[in-house]
Amino acid sequence: MSVGSTARTRVHRLPERAVSEVQALHDILDAGLVAHVSVVTDGQPYVVPVGYARRGDEVAFHGSSASRLFRTLSTGQSMCFTVTLLDGLVLARSAFNSSMNYRSVMVLGSPRLLTGDEELDALRAVSEHLIPGRWEHIRHPSPQERKATTTLCLSLAECSVKVRTGEPHDDAEDVTNLSELWAGVMPIVEAFGVPLTAPDCPQGLETPSHLRQWTR
């Protein structure tokens, strides 16, 4: 697998932000929690957010088997899968040069429908990706629940990675003539809060340790 190596995934706009290392691809996917999946159904483009997990050189995700989009995807329809991590707002002295620090992945391809033990393993992977250790503390999907769920995987064979880091890149004349204007970066940090116990839990039930210890 080579990141950004096809005509469809080669970065043309700001190519200096393109990243070709497979490890960077894996790191971004492993850090993200939500992906956006797009597909064209009956001539109309649709985009939906999904939870997902990386399993080696593929990503697994799932949705309702009653969903028109997932019914289309289960036939192997071409699709686009994206993950974006926003790390900061880049505040330049001009609106034009203001930007964002981000890490992003785009994957193109046709998904594969998972069944049987492979599907159950993918559902476990998604659960563990979102909250490590959670699979051991929940009831696993029943046959009826699995029937209501479409689970898919997508190869990472055709993908691109784009990253922006660093400070604003102001025009030289703006730095000279607008020196009284502040410029810099507003960092964005993601964090989990304190777990909130459901009101129907027995009084005094302790929050599981895998939730108390999980941080971002």
Percent strand: 25-35%
Radius of gyration of CA atoms, rounded to a whole number? 21 Å
What fold name stands as the CATH topology?
Pnp Oxidase, Chain A
Number of helical runs?
6
Order of helices and strands: EHEEEHEEEHHEEHEH
| CATH superfamily caption | Electron Transport, Fmn-binding Protein, Chain A
Low-confidence segments, ≥5 residues, pLDDT <50?
none
CATH architectural name: Roll
In the CATH hierarchy, what is the class?
A: Mainly Beta
User: Which percent range fits the helix content?
Assistant: 10-25%
Whole-Å distance between the termini?
A: 29 Å
| Number of DSSP strand runs | 10
What class, by secondary structure content? alpha+beta
Explain what this protein looks like in three dimensions.
It is a single chain. This protein is α+β, with helices and mostly antiparallel strands. It has one domain (15-170, 184-212): Electron Transport, Fmn-binding Protein, Chain A (Pnp Oxidase, Chain A, Roll). Helices cover 21% and strands 33% of the residues. The protein is built from 6 helices and 10 strands. It has helices spanning 22-31, 68-73, 116-130, 143-147, 172-177, 209-212, and strands spanning 18-19, 34-41, 44-54, 58-64, 79-91, 99-109, 112-113, 149-155, 159-164, 184-187. Strands 1, 2, 3, 4, 5, 6, 7, 8, 9 and 10 form a 10-stranded antiparallel β-sheet that branches. Strand 5 (79-91) and strand 6 form a beta hairpin. The longest helix is centred in the middle third of the chain and has 15 residues, at 116-130. It is globular and about 65 Å long. The chain starts with 17 loop residues before the first strand and ends with a helix. The relative contact order is 0.19. The model has no long low-confidence stretch (mean pLDDT 94).
